[in-house]
């Protein structure tokens, strides 16, 4: 049984993330989407909100679970019996950063392999920051994020001055 972990900020989850999850769930026996509570970043959504939005989006995927974690990813991965860390790659520019992290994680936990999945072309430009910028200024994010995220972005920014 191969358990994989897909870590990230997911602030908020986009259809690019969801595409990676949908493809990975067909490869691995069990997939844990791990929402990082990062003390160095001030997120738009709390970790619990981010988790809830992912849970709604993956409700039809029986072998996918969502958890919040803090601290070192490899410690969390070990505690869940994960053998694979999954990351998505968009452009070549992702590669350098991702390789550095993957090698660092392997140094700490040689039994865990990092696997990269390339993005689907239609999502190669998409990230959470772009989505937040569009929503902040009243643009339409339909098709870029799951419907529950679209709604919450609208709620969030309707109360915030631009
Ligand atoms: P982090 O802050 O850890 O980079 P993100 O939430 O931005 O967290 O991304 C989590 C993972 O999803 C990363 O591996 C990232 O490369 C990948 N990812 C983000 N957007 C896309 C996309 N549009 N297509 C494929 N992978 C993506």
UniProtKB/TrEMBL annotation:
Reactions the enzyme catalyzes: (R)-4'-phosphopantetheine + ATP + H(+) = 3'-dephospho-CoA + diphosphate
Annotated ranges, domain Cytidyltransferase-like: 5-133
Q: Name one GO molecular function term.
A: pantetheine-phosphate adenylyltransferase activity
Enzyme Commission code:
2.7.7.3
Listed under GO cellular component are: cytoplasm
Tell me which UniProt keywords the record has, alphabetically. ATP-binding, Coenzyme A biosynthesis, Cytoplasm, Magnesium, Nucleotide-binding, Nucleotidyltransferase, Transferase
Annotated site, Transition state stabilizer, chain positions:
17
For whether the record's keyword set contains Transferase, the answer is yes
Q: Which SUPFAM superfamilies match?
A: Nucleotidylyl transferase (SSF52374)
Q: Where in the cell is it found?
A: Cytoplasm
Q: Name one Pfam family in it.
A: CTP_transf_like
- Enzyme class, UniProt record, top EC level: transferase
The pathway where this protein functions is:
Cofactor biosynthesis; coenzyme A biosynthesis; CoA from (R)-pantothenate: step 4/5
The protein's matches in CDD domains, at most eight in alphabetical order, are given as:
PPAT
Entry binding sites for substrate: 9, 41, 73, 87
For biological process, the GO terms are: coenzyme A biosynthetic process
Q: Which cofactor does it need?
A: Mg(2+)
Q: Where, in this chain's numbering, is ATP bound?
A: 9-10, 17, 88-90, 98, 123-129
What is known about its subunit structure?
Answer: Homohexamer.
Which PANTHER family does the record match to this protein?
PHOSPHOPANTETHEINE ADENYLYLTRANSFERASE
Q: Tell me the function of this protein.
A: Reversibly transfers an adenylyl group from ATP to 4'-phosphopantetheine, yielding dephospho-CoA (dPCoA) and pyrophosphate.
Q: What is stated as this protein's family in its record? A: Belongs to the bacterial CoaD family.
Q: Which NCBIfam families is this protein grouped with?
A: coaD_prev_kdtB, cyt_tran_rel
Q: Under which name does UniProt file this protein?
A: Phosphopantetheine adenylyltransferase
Q: Native species of this protein?
A: Candidatus Caldatribacterium californiense
Gene of origin? coaD
